[in-house]
């Protein structure tokens, strides 16, 4: 009996050590990968490539299986600092309706907002497969009562109920989506939008002939590379 207990003890120790080791290298790998994307290649490549990489990472997660939780845990933590800053910047209140456009297969922003607030969250993505995977993960984390996931396009989604809208970094059809939000979003809604600090056209994106948003406030982060997160409101609010 003592020998069996000893073997179980050793097995658990080894399992814990392997888990810790995988966690360390996973965190290090994801951090370095995103630094490369945002800092070193961000100036040369379109930000939409980032979504392709995140989807690719999720496919790896599925294949690894047992390490699924370790990798997603660190993936979500990559976004934690900036999302928490965005929550405080925009003052998300209890029972507000939040929309996340471009949630991807790992809906990190939606998960962090759900855990930090009591807001009602809807997250959408144009990729049907990504939404399918995201639903599986949300169900696994028992967050299905707090996060609703829909396969939809951001440029024609019904916006009437949403108090705050998060526009993910690197999504496609940005100009169409911004025009749709400006025209059909609630008068007093707030739009949270991430843009690279190296994007010289950011002023034209948020204030042009189609849309005229006010920049209410801004936060910056260098954790994943130089990114500005803007809190925007409609110009006719003032």
How would you concisely characterize the structure shown here?
With 238 residues, the chain is of the alpha/beta class. It has helices at 2-40, 49-64, 68-90, 108-116, 128-140, 174-184, 202-206, and strands at residues 97-101, 120-125, 147-151, 164-167, 190-196, 213-221, 227-234. The chain has one domain (2-237): Rossmann fold, CATH 3.40.50.150.
Output the CATH homologous superfamily: Vaccinia Virus protein VP39
Mean pLDDT across the residues is 77
Lateral strand order in the biggest sheet: 3-2-1-4-5-7-6
Give the helix tally.
7
Distance separating the two termini: 76 Å
Instruction: Give unreliable regions as ranges.
Output: 41-48, 61-67
Shape: globular
The top-level CATH class is Alpha Beta
- At CATH level 2, the architecture is 3-Layer(aba) Sandwich
Topology of this structure?
Layout: H1 2-40, H2 49-64, H3 68-90, E1 97-101, H4 108-116, E2 120-125, H5 128-140, E3 147-151, E4 164-167, H6 174-184, E5 190-196, H7 202-206, E6 213-221, E7 227-234
Parallel strand pairs: 1-2, 1-4, 2-3, 4-5
Antiparallel strand pairs: 5-7, 6-7
Keywords:
49% helix, seven-stranded mixed sheet, alpha/beta, Rossmann fold, 238 residues, 7 helices
């Amino acid at each position: 009996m003592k020998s069996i207990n000893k073997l179980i003890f050793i097995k658990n120790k080894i399992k814990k050590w392997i888990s810790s080791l995988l966690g360390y290298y996973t965190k290090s790998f994801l951090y370095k990968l995103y630094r490369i994307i945002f800092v070193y290649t961000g100036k040369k490549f379109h930000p939409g490539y980032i979504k392709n990489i995140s989807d690719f990472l999720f496919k790896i997660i599925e294949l690894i299986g047992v390490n699924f939780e370790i990798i997603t845990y660190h993936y979500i933590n990559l976004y934690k600092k900036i999302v928490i800053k965005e929550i405080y910047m925009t003052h998300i209140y209890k029972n507000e309706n939040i929309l996340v456009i471009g949630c991807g297969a790992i809906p990190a922003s939606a998960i962090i907002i759900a855990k930090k607030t009591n807001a009602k969250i809807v997250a959408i993505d144009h990729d049907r497969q990504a939404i399918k995977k995201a639903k599986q993960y949300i169900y696994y984390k028992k967050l299905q009562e707090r996060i609703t996931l829909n396969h939809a396009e951001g440029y024609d989604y019904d916006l009437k109920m949403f108090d705050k809208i998060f526009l993910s970094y690197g999504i496609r059809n940005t100009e169409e989506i911004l025009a749709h939000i400006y025209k059909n979003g609630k008068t007093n809604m707030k739009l949270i939008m991430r843009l690279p600090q190296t994007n010289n056209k950011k002023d034209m994106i948020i204030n042009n002939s189609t849309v005229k948003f006010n920049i209410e406030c801004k936060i910056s982060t260098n954790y994943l590379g130089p990114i500005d997160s803007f809190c925007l409101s409609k110009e006719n609010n003032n």
